[in-house]
């Protein structure tokens, strides 16, 4: 990318989209939600602009208003949207149809539900071409095959005849991109194009977008919650918060010299693979958009704010005329002077961890597919081998990170270790006792010692019970306590997770996502467990909240000296919190070692692919990724030999195909344990990741 | 009647039970379908319950010489072929219909709800077995199964209640089970398992409160269906037995006098139709208010 | 889509099991519940000796499972017994009567399909508008007014002394009275049944279509600039109609119940009327056979719908579980 030379050597700059002072309100039974306020944006031919914001920032509303497709209760209350110098609001129906798909194309968020399930994907593309252009069916089909090739779908003739459900998520997203590009639009809106995709798939889609930027002359708006996606693909970025543009400018400028406290806060809250540092969460929560108070919308949460920030109208100020860097902040020069920056984290050397084993899993297998009676008579399908022979130890006081892409069996492993699922084969010992042979009191003891926190805070609390009662219930069940003691402990727990004691009488729906997750954590800690499985505990949270929760988890770990099994698909998060990390692929552990050793060579080929696919916050990084071919094989019928051999870039032939590699120990200088399951020798595993 | 735009959000809930109840009542009343349904049902229920006070005549008292009288005069709605006061009979007739609707639904719920929750939560073979059995019961059309049961037990209100409850139990169990399956996916259920709660506690303390909305909706729609089935049985002479007044039975006797007077047929028909309509509207409206996600019941 | 033989075989096994269960239920209800066959035949005042002789003749003194097996095997071999009431072989009786009811069912199904599905689609497309309101409102009446009320109402209007275009009831076969006569006896029952079932199917179609019109792929279709007609007819209806096939088979259940009542109203000598007569006269062999028959038809209609559904729906490629 060439941000440096901005803007002199670019092609002739033509403004293609001008959004001026746009405001959108949704009518709801509880009042009007002012989803967008005074949003201005401009876009020129060939330019890629990222729009980034947390949930509730109004980024999707912005995308939909550009397409004139707001929900029935949404209304533009002010402002103009000019596409090629023409106002597109209130266009007649026919003209709007000609605009959509032909001139402004949209790639939706969820590829799985966004394609018509009962039409072949090829037809869904060619009908767009036929609708907008004067072509014969044959011509449309040829164009469709061509465009499928452009988005790197192999064998277009074959794949065009597939139904959406026959394609993988990544392929579906390519089809949607192909559909959007099919009529050479002048503006392409990508709405969270990689959210929900695995990191290796995401990497491929991002590379594709990068390629398309070069080969098409389309202006692109990329909407995302993920700053690293912006860093990888965009020229300029617009930061949205609570319906207002906080800052906009070139990506390099914004990422390197943010001139808005909110942007600075966001950047400081994100864990990074490259450096160990403390996370700085943004305090407070997003304001209620039904009542907008005077002054800066961010003032309540801002550490630079002063009294005058809370009154009057905050206007956009220019930081740098040359690069068109703007910020909506009165204190931006203070913020640049003394930016919010996270401290480098003191090395969490295994001070608190011991080498005493707490939990040990040996050759654990968990197969799904309880066939019905008749399936057995008729020979049912083979079972899903979700976990297929895992050895794992968790030491006292240690945090073991477990990473892998969706479907690799990491959550199943977590639940199996807690005996939430019946084990198919293998042995799990906890504190030296086999958890499968526990009697009922032993099981109760185990339950009080081993707990779990789930991913989705909105589903992890019973909506019909008060927070306080939900915290007291495990105490009643698992500890020997009377009512007063339980009440006291409940208040203590609330306090420890940073919630006021009046939360005890609230119902879950009155809490924000982050607050619910705190309650879920408090509930897990209630009986002072020695071991907690954290199953993607921050994956559905915004980054600023994510940082709060990660810090809380670290704090509680010190407080209780508990061990964690931290399950996540996010390498940066896992790196941030873990002492040791295990990498899982298709039901098996392919690499395990200290946090440091995983991120340094030698690498398992799969770990290497994961690391190189992990998007980076550094906009200057040259991307040269390891591309994984094909899809993850079905766990019903995993490959013979090494489970990764079907996709491995370093595949060696028969040996990989027929012989299953054992975890072998790699010698390290500082005595860290590091094991890799691969037939390659250490030297071949040791190549640096080219970046 | 409220004319507010039908709200499509989930019930907003307040701090205390009383608050929540207030909000609930407000959203029920501001839902158009609920409001119409209640407008129909309230007077019918009141009149029916107060029948002994309001009715001008004993419903079984015959008036010689005043057979098949038209409305007006001595008899507000006219008389039947035996000279009995139609107004009184319609009022009393509602009692057996409502009683049958409410008790048979109640009975069916008290069997169907536990079966559905338990079967859905336990899953596996047990679930498969129970649901096979329910499917089998459902593969006999409901009116025919009710007919068969009544035929064998003998006609009468009580037997009709048993028959209708038997017919509706599997249908309720199916609906409850499918709600249970979706709540079962929620993480708070797994959290309860992780702290070692018993199955019984999870079924009835964790799951049941969270499916109360679809259960209430199902119940109120079922009452309408039950009244309809009961009236059909009575029409065929297998429900409430004469001389006890009953709408279905009245319509069936009025059938023989259609060409002499229309009123005899009209009044019970209107009351019966209005009652069933009321419960249908109320049920659908409650669905909008309580549980907008659940689609219309596909099990008839 | 390919429907594997394994799937079909599995479905067949389920169905056979289902049918066996139904036969047990029907047999159970007719045998265990109070009411004694011998007493019914001989009348209430028969001497105990006569009753026990007849019981022996009928095999009623055997253990219950032997009775069941005897009953089932004779049923499967086509000897369905003799009607107490009509003193005719049950098989003949049911075939003649069943055919007449079949006419009603088939014609009604054809009418409701061609009316209610378009209505449901229209109501969904104009969701929350006056048109939707009107269609849904009328459908409430269809659902709430019992068929014996609708039927009687139609009689009053169209067969009464004032405006009597149709006969008030009865039946004439085509061979006896020609097609006009035959039709004139069928119009009112079919209309009544249509009014009853149209609302069910229309509402279900509407619900399905409303959901689909809110779906992501419809948004995709609109945002690529397709006109609304293509969006609805090509993208939405295709997906919306697939479940309707299953729904049609299911509405057969309420239709069969409706037929019983409607035949009673219009004195139409079909299977429904036969069932009601047998109930009042406790003609157990007829009851057992006719209810079993209805359940069989219903079960196979559902199987057929399932198979059609799997052919229509590319998402399901069978081989997997039946659920």
TrEMBL record, chain A:
Region described as Disordered: spans on this chain: 336-357, 614-642
Single GO MF annotation: ATP hydrolysis activity
Pfam families: ABC_tran, oligo_HPY
Membrane-protein topology: Peripheral membrane protein
UniProt KW ATP-binding keyword: yes
PANTHER family attached to this UniProt entry: DIPEPTIDE TRANSPORT ATP-BINDING PROTEIN DPPD, OLIGOPEPTIDE TRANSPORT ATP-BINDING PROTEIN APPD
Keyword terms, alphabetized: ATP-binding, Cell membrane, Membrane, Nucleotide-binding, Transport
A GO BP entry: peptide transport
Major place of residence: membrane
ABC transporter domain span: 17-267, 359-611
SUPFAM superfamilies: P-loop containing nucleoside triphosphate hydrolases
CDD domains: ABC_NikE_OppD_transporters
GO cellular component terms given for this protein: plasma membrane
Annotated organism of origin: Haloterrigena salina JCM 13891
Keyword Membrane among record annotations: yes
Sequence ranges of Basic and acidic residues compositional bias: 618-627
Name by which UniProt lists this protein: ABC-type transport system ATP-binding protein (Probable substrate dipeptides/oligopeptides)
NCBIfam families xref list: oligo_HPY, PRK10419.1, PRK11308.1
InterPro entries: AAA+_ATPase (IPR003593), ABC_Ni/Peptide_Import (IPR050388), ABC_transporter-like_ATP-bd (IPR003439), ABC_transporter-like_CS (IPR017871), Oligopep_ABC_C (IPR013563), P-loop_NTPase (IPR027417)
Compartment(s): Cell membrane
Upper lineage: Archaea, Methanobacteriati, Methanobacteriota, Stenosarchaea group, Halobacteria
Gene3D superfamilies noted in UniProt: P-loop containing nucleotide triphosphate hydrolases
């Amino acid at each position: 990318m060439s941000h440096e030379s901005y803007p002199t050597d670019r092609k002739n700059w033509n403004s293609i989209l001008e959004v001026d002072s746009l405001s959108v309100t949704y009518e709801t039974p509880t009042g009007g939600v002012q989803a967008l306020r005074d949003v201005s944006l401009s876009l020129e031919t060939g330019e890629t602009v990222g729009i980034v914001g947390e949930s509730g920032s109004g980024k999707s509303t912005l995308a939909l208003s550009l397409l004139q497709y707001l929900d029935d209760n949404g209304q533009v209350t002010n402002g103009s949207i000019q596409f090629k110098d023409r106002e597109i609001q209130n266009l007649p129906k026919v003209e709007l149809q000609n605009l959509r798909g032909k001139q402004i194309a949209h790639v939706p968020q969820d590829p799985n539900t966004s394609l018509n399930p009962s039409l072949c994907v090829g037809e869904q593309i060619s009908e767009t071409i036929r609708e907008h252009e004067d072509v014969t069916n044959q011509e449309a089909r040829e164009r469709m095959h061509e465009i499928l090739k452009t988005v790197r779908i192999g064998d277009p003739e074959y794949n065009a005849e597939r139904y959406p459900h026959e394609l993988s998520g990544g392929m579906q997203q390519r089809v949607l991109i192909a559909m959007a590009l099919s009529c050479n639009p002048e503006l392409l809106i990508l709405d969270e194009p990689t959210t929900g995709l695995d990191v290796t798939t995401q990497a491929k889609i991002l590379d594709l977008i990068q390629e398309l930027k070069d080969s098409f002359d389309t202006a692109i708006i990329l909407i995302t919650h993920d700053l690293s996606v912006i860093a990888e693909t965009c020229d300029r970025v617009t930061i949205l918060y609570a319906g207002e543009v906080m800052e906009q400018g070139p990506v390099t400028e914004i990422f390197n010299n943010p001139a808005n406290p909110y942007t600075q806060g966001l950047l400081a809250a994100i864990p990074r693979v490259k450096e160990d540092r403390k996370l700085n969460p943004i305090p407070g929560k997003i304001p209620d958009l039904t009542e907008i108070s005077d002054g800066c919308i961010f003032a309540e949460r801002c550490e630079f704010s002063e009294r005058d920030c809370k009154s009057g109208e905050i206007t956009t100020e220019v930081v740098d005329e040359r690069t068109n860097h703007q910020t909506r902040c009165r204190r931006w020069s203070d913020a640049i002077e003394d930016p919010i920056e996270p401290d480098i984290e003191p090395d969490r050397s295994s001070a608190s961890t011991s080498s005493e084993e707490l939990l040990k899993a040996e050759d654990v297998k968990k197969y799904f597919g309880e066939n019905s009676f008749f399936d057995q008579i008729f020979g049912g399908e083979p079972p899903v081998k979700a976990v297929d022979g895992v050895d794992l130890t968790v030491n006292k006081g240690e945090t073991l990170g477990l990473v892998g892409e969706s479907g690799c069996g990491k959550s199943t492993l977590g639940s199996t270790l807690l005996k939430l699922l019946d084990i198919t084969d293998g042995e799990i010992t906890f504190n030296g006792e086999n958890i499968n042979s526990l009697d009922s009191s032993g099981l109760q003891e185990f339950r009080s010692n081993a707990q779990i926190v789930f991913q989705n805070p909105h589903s992890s609390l019973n909506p019909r019970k008060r927070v306080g009662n939900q915290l007291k219930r495990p105490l009643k069940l698992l500890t020997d306590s009377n009512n007063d003691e339980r009440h006291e402990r409940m208040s203590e727990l609330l306090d420890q997770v940073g919630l006021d004691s009046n939360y005890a009488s609230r119902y879950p729906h009155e809490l924000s996502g982050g607050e619910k997750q705190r309650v879920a954590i408090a509930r897990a800690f209630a009986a002072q467990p020695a071991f907690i499985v954290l199953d993607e505990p921050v994956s559905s949270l915004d980054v600023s909240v994510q940082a709060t929760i990660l810090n809380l988890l670290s704090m509680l770990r010190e407080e209780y000296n508990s061990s964690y099994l931290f399950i996540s698909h996010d390498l940066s998060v896992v790196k941030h919190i873990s002492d040791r990390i295990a990498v899982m692929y298709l039901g098996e552990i392919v690499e395990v070692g200290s946090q440091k050793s995983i991120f340094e060579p030698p690498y398992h080929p799969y770990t290497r692919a994961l690391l190189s696919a992990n998007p980076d916050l550094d906009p200057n990084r040259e991307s040269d990724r390891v591309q994984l071919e094909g899809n993850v094989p079905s766990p019903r019928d995993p490959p013979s030999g090494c489970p990764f051999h079907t996709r491995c870039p370093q595949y060696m032939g028969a040996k990989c195909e027929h012989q299953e590699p054992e975890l072998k120990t790699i010698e390290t200088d500082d005595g860290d344990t590091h094991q890799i399951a691969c037939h390659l020798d250490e030297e071949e595993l040791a190549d640096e990741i080219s970046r | 009647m409220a004319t507010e735009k039908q709200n499509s959000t989930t019930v907003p809930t307040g701090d205390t039970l009383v608050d929540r109840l207030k909000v609930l009542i407000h959203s029920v009343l501001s839902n158009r379908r609920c409001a119409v349904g209640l407008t129909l049902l309230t007077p019918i229920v009141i009149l029916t319950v107060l029948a002994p006070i309001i009715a001008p005549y004993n419903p079984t008292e015959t008036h010689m010489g005043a057979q098949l009288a038209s409305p007006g005069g001595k008899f507000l709605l006219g008389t039947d072929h035996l000279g009995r006061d139609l107004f009184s009979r319609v009022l009393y007739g509602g009692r057996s219909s409502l009683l049958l609707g409410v008790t048979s639904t109640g009975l069916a719920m008290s069997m169907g709800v536990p079966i559905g929750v338990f079967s859905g939560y336990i899953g596996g073979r047990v679930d498969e077995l129970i649901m096979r059995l329910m499917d089998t019961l459902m593969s006999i059309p409901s009116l025919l199964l009710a007919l068969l049961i009544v035929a064998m037990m003998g006609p009468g209100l009580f037997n009709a209640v048993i028959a209708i409850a038997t017919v509706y139990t599997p249908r309720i169990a199916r609906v409850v089970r499918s709600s249970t399956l979706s709540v079962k996916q929620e993480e708070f259920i797994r959290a309860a398992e992780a702290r070692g709660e018993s199955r019984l506690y999870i079924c009835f303390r964790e799951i049941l409160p969270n499916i109360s909305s679809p259960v209430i909706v199902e119940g109120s729609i079922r009452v309408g269906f039950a009244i309809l089935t009961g009236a059909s049985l009575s029409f065929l002479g297998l429900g409430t037995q004469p001389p006890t007044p009953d709408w279905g039975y009245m319509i069936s006797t009025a059938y023989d006098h259609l060409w002499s007077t229309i009123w005899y047929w009209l009044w019970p028909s209107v009351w019966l139709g209005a009652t069933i309509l009321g419960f249908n509207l109320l049920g659908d409206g409650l669905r909008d208010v309580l549980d907008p996600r659940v689609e219309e019941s596909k099990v008839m | 889509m390919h429907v594997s033989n394994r799937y079909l075989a599995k479905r067949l096994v389920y169905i056979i099991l289902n049918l066996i269960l139904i036969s047990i239920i029907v047999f159970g209800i007719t045998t265990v519940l109070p009411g004694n066959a011998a007493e019914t035949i001989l009348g209430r005042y028969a001497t105990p000796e006569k009753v026990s002789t007849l019981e022996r003749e009928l095999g009623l003194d055997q253990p219950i499972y032997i009775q069941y097996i005897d009953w089932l095997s004779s049923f499967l071999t086509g000897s369905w017994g003799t009607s107490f009431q009509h003193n005719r072989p049950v098989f003949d009786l049911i075939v003649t009567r069943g055919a007449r009811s079949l006419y009603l069912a088939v014609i009604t199904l054809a009418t409701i399909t061609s009316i209610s599905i378009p209505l449901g689609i229209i109501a969904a497309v104009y969701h929350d508008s006056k048109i939707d309101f009107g269609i849904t409102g009328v459908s409430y009446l269809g659902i709430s007014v019992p068929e014996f009320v609708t039927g009687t109402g139609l009689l009053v209007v169209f067969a009464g002394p004032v405006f009597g275009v149709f006969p008030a009831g009865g039946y004439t076969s085509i061979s006896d009275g020609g097609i006009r006569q035959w039709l004139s006896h069928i119009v009112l029952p079919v209309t009544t049944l249509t009014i009853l079932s149209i609302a069910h199917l229309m509402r279900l179609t509407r619900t399905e279509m409303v959901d689909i019109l809110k779906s992501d792929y419809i948004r995709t279709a609109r945002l690529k600039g397709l006109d609304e007609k293509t969006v609805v007819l090509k993208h939405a209806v295709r997906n919306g109609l697939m479940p309707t096939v299953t729904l049609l088979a299911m509405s057969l259940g309420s239709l069969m119940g409706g037929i019983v009542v409607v035949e009673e109203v219009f004195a139409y000598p079909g299977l429904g009327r036969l069932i009601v007569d047998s109930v009042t006269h406790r003609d157990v062999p007829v009851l057992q056979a006719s209810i079993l028959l209805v359940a069989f038809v219903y079960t196979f209609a559902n199987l057929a719908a399932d198979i059609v559904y799997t052919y229509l729906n590319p998402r399901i490629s069978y081989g997997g579980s039946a659920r």
